[in-house]
Amino acid sequence: MTVLRISILFVLAAVAEIGGAWLIWQAVKENRGWVFAVLGVMALGAYGFLAALQPDANFGRVLASYGGVFIAGSLAWGIIVDGFKPTIWDWVGSAIALVGAAIIILAPTSTDATAETAL
């Protein structure tokens, strides 16, 4: 259940942060108006709360892991919303970032008995 919860929170956080940044981008770069900017700020605030709901208590670990999810999510958003056509290097880089994120957030920590015996 914990891996499922972590995954759902990361996906929701990605939608909130990427969506919020996109809304602000639309307000500033595409002159879509202040309503887009306000909605973007609200979405970015929601991202902060969603990230704080992660079961891991270490801010740095959660945000570092989220970085990989953000990379993949940003490319997905670009494909779905903006018609972005990724290169093979975009796909490879995204996969590497997701593997790195999974290692950071799912690997045993020094408080786990298995991690202590491995050192």
UniProtKB/TrEMBL annotation:
<protein>
    <submittedName>
        <fullName>Small multidrug resistance family-3 protein</fullName>
    </submittedName>
</protein>
<keyword id="KW-1133">Transmembrane helix</keyword>
<dbReference type="Pfam" id="PF02694">
    <property type="entry name" value="UPF0060"/>
</dbReference>
<feature type="transmembrane region" description="Helical">
    <location>
        <begin position="59"/>
        <end position="81"/>
    </location>
</feature>
<comment type="similarity">
    <text>Belongs to the UPF0060 family.</text>
</comment>
<feature type="transmembrane region" description="Helical">
    <location>
        <begin position="34"/>
        <end position="53"/>
    </location>
</feature>
<dbReference type="GO" id="GO:0005886">
    <property type="term" value="C:plasma membrane"/>
</dbReference>
<dbReference type="InterPro" id="IPR003844">
    <property type="entry name" value="UPF0060"/>
</dbReference>
<keyword id="KW-0812">Transmembrane</keyword>
<feature type="transmembrane region" description="Helical">
    <location>
        <begin position="6"/>
        <end position="25"/>
    </location>
</feature>
<keyword id="KW-0472">Membrane</keyword>
<feature type="transmembrane region" description="Helical">
    <location>
        <begin position="88"/>
        <end position="107"/>
    </location>
</feature>
<keyword id="KW-1003">Cell membrane</keyword>
<dbReference type="InterPro" id="IPR037185">
    <property type="entry name" value="EmrE-like"/>
</dbReference>
